[in-house]
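Example for tutorial group B:
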């Protein structure tokens, strides 16, 4: 039992289970937020890499098509 004593005549005591359940809920919520944040950042990183790869591929395709035209 957790007892809270303050000034005055009142004193409260809370069952440890309530504190443990609250801590589990808060830890789960924080873990979910961190998971979503990391997942979102990784997705943005993958999209940026894919965009750069496509840009590089277009550049290479353009160079090969120009060199083929010159050979004709």
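The residue assignment follows.
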């Amino acid at each position: 039992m957790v007892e809270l004593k303050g000034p005055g005549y009142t004193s409260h005591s809370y069952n440890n289970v309530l504190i443990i359940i609250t801590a589990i809920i808060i830890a789960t919520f924080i873990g979910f937020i961190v998971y979503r944040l990391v997942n979102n950042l990784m997705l943005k990183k993958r999209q940026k890499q894919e965009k750069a790869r496509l840009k590089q591929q277009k550049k290479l395709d353009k160079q090969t098509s120009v060199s083929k035209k010159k050979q004709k």
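The longest strand covers residues 2-5. Compare this with the pattern of hydrophobic and polar residues in the output above.
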